Amino acid sequence: MTNRTTLDQARADLAAIESNLAALLAKKIEASKTAASFDEWRSTHGAIAAERERLTVVIEGLEPTVAAEEAGQAKVDLLRRYEARNTANQKLAARIKADLTKANNIVLALVRETAEAAVEDSRINAALPDDLEPLIPADFIARGRPGLDRKELSKTKVWLWTNARNGMLIGDQDAVIDLGNGRGKVGQGSGQTNCVAALFEQVEYCPEEPAQRPRALWQLALPQPDGPGLVFDGSKCNYPTDVLAELARGARANEPRERPIEIELRPVQPAATEAA
Predict the structure, then answer these.
(1) For the chain, what is the total number of helices (H) and then of strands (E)?
(2) What are 66-93's pLDDT values in tens digits?
(3) Rounded-to-integer distance, Cα 226 and Cα 99, Å
């Protein structure tokens, strides 16, 4: 049995003892009616009180020991987690470099091809005769959502109550009292409104939906797989020619280069000065 188990058991036993003592104290007056019953009560109370004292001593002795043991175990567990996480981080870092390099190569090729296609689309569309529809950009074909025209699903004729004075529809049709011959009323007294039944065409339809243009594929940013910068930043590229220029800049930035060398002067000792 571990010290923690012993401590927990002692605490549970002490709680039970405290409960027994409370119940025993409630019987003290009844036990005092005769000398024999009171002697028995006092004997029982003394035994329970002694056990409470013993358990209290056990708990006070074990608590520092258990606290020290658990602090030591927590330190061991933290070190184990630290070492496991450090090993996992090294593996993850290698994956980030490798997988991000692969992903960037795929996406950069798509960005370049999309930009070049957009430049060619623009040139062709500018020269098209009137009888040809302009080319739709590949990026929109892949990621855009074309607009939808309104589509009627059904038509039915319905009779509805309207205000006899201005022809407006009555909001609560069920509240109108039918007076016959296409006449009705709603409300009472000064609040009464005369109604007239009118024929309406009820149309069930899907509403028109505008086209949704996606944000240009090239307006994304790709992180360096092995450094803090960006391989490509298209966030400020509004035209495909901007994209091609940014791709060229990124290629130049990735070329190997020597580290810059600079010179500084540090005084070793104060310079001698002439007396005034």
Answers:
(1) 5, 6
(2) 999 999 999 999 999 999 999 999 999 9
(3) 11
Other C-beta atoms closer than 10 Å to the C-beta of 175 total 14
> For 6-40, how does the pLDDT look when each residue is reduced to its tens digit (9 = 90+)?
999 999 999 999 999 999 898 888 888 899 998 89
The verdict on pTM exceeding 0.85 is no
pLDDT tens, position by position, 165-199: 999 999 999 999 999 999 999 998 888 999 999 99
Phi-psi region of 187 (alpha: psi -120 to 50; beta: other; left: phi over 0): left
Cα→Cα distances 120→109, 163, 244, Å? 17, 62, 13
First-to-last CA distance in the chain?
89
User: Any bridge partners for residue 185, and if so which?
Assistant: 177, 194
Comparing C-alpha atoms, which of 105, 110, 99, 120 is closest to residue 143? 110
Dihedral sign, CA of 114, 117, 123, 127?
negative
The residue type of 258 is E
